[in-house]
Amino acid sequence: MLSNSMSEKITKYIEHIVAEGQSPVRIDKYLTRLLPQKSRAYIQSLITSEHILVNGRPVKASHKVSPAEQIDIFLQQRPPIDVRPEKMALDIVYEDEALLVVNKPAGMVVHPGPGHAGGTLVNGLLYGPLSGAFESPENLRPGIVHRLDKETSGLLVVAKNDEIHAALAKQFSQKTAFRK
Asked: Which residue out of 72, 82, 96, 149 is catalytically annotated?
């Protein structure tokens, strides 16, 4: 059962019964497929904070789901993003109405975070190609479909809306995305 302070942050409750015939799979992976608009990291944070219960009890991300288990999911409101758009030169190698591909230089941080509030790829994307997109406070990684470390250079695929983001993230997750 959730404490009063935890329940104040709850924005949605989902009750789910695992289908008969479901093969054992980690609950974080299972819920990522069940809720494709939510990231695996977000699901794992809900598990860690005991906002996901199985048969009324907290579990670890490694818990394997079984048929007929009841999963209670308490979605939390995320704090609003305080990411300021910044004008910067980005090396965009492809762009259409749905997505863009940007060549990220080594040394550039992708996402704002402690110690990197500005100068990130996300700051630059929000100023230019993603200006006005991704208004939802739940989207902490606007448009970014996959990852590159700070010191790694290379091409990053960036979605221009939530629908394309979910579809591309699923393709990367299932390893069905490919290069031409």
From this structure: 149
